[in-house]
């Protein structure tokens, strides 16, 4: 029985790291990019052609970066999708507990900083965008101006079992997962980027 348990455990970890590797295989390191601080999503895409600013994490306590949204982040989708949250930094946890193989791990357990252009305030809204056991919660936590660097963070408290995005209200989680990966820039929601989007991300 012990040998069988060890075999199952080894197989589980092998699948775990294989899955993480597949998620990150298209990631391009900064030293291969001419302007490494800027992450670019081309028009009519949801994310960069090659993933950027991602990586494996073990028992992370915080994911943080200084982020600057330039004028390319001003957009008008001319629909209710204008209210959808895009994403910038964050993380997803990987593990077998409650993991739906049809869902990305960060859409089961994870937290990210959401962002969207607000044409009424002429600013970028910022949000907590989290999944707990596959259930999504999202709410505004702040705002920033175009071309204004801002420190964004997602903190993980394993004792309280809470995510805290910036200074927003904490979101409780119920998993015991330790393996995670950083998520990168994503446009959408439903709609892809209406034009080229550039965001400066400095870890």
Question: How is this structure best described in words?
Answer:
- With 203 residues, the protein is mainly beta.
- The chain has one domain: Jelly Rolls (Sandwich), CATH 2.60.120.
- It is built from 1 helix and 12 strands.
- The chain has one helix spanning 2-24; strands spanning 38-41, 55-58, 62-69, 86-94, 110-118, 123-132, 135-144, 150-157, 162-165, 171-172, 179-183, 197-202.
- A 6-stranded antiparallel beta sheet has the order 1-12-3-8-9-10, with no helix packed on it. The chain has a 6-stranded antiparallel beta sheet with strand order 2-11-4-5-6-7, with helices on one face.
- The protein is globular and about 40 Å long.
- It starts with a helix and ends with a strand.
- The relative contact order is 0.26.
End-to-end distance, in Å? 46 Å
What Rg is obtained from the alpha carbons, in whole angstroms?
Answer: 17 Å
| Global structural class | mainly beta
Poorly predicted segments: 1-11, 21-25
Shape: globular
For the biggest β-sheet, the strand order reads 1-12-3-8-9-10
Determine the fraction of residues in helical runs and give it as a percent range.
Answer: 10-25%
Order of helices and strands: HEEEEEEEEEEEE
Strand content: 35-45%
CATH class category label? Mainly Beta
Mean pLDDT: 87
Q: Count all strands and give the number.
A: 12
Count of DSSP-assigned helices: 1
The main β sheet shows up as: 6 strands, antiparallel
Q: How does CATH name the architecture?
A: Sandwich
